[in-house]
Amino acid sequence: MIQSRAVVGTAHASRYLQQLAKHWSHKFETEFDAASARIALPLGEARLAADPAALTIDLSVDDPATLPDFHAVIVRHIERFAFRETLRFDWT
């Protein structure tokens, strides 16, 4: 299993986490509350954690070739919710 993490500075982490989980809850297996989420997507699993200063995103994939696509899907959706601010995603 390959893992990747981004810690995204934002005061709205909980809001974005919940919006993303709710958005995908009708299509994919999700579990979430105001501080954490787990979303099982075809590309892999996303786990998110919100605190007052940041949104931490942990992605897990079986196939390393899918990781760039998974990054792009997550970033695209969160940026859509966060259209009022510019977020920085540094994946490690």
TrEMBL record:
Gene3D superfamilies: Alpha-D-phosphohexomutase, C-terminal domain (3.30.310.50). It holds the Pfam family DUF2218. This is DUF2218 domain-containing protein. It comes from the Bacteria.
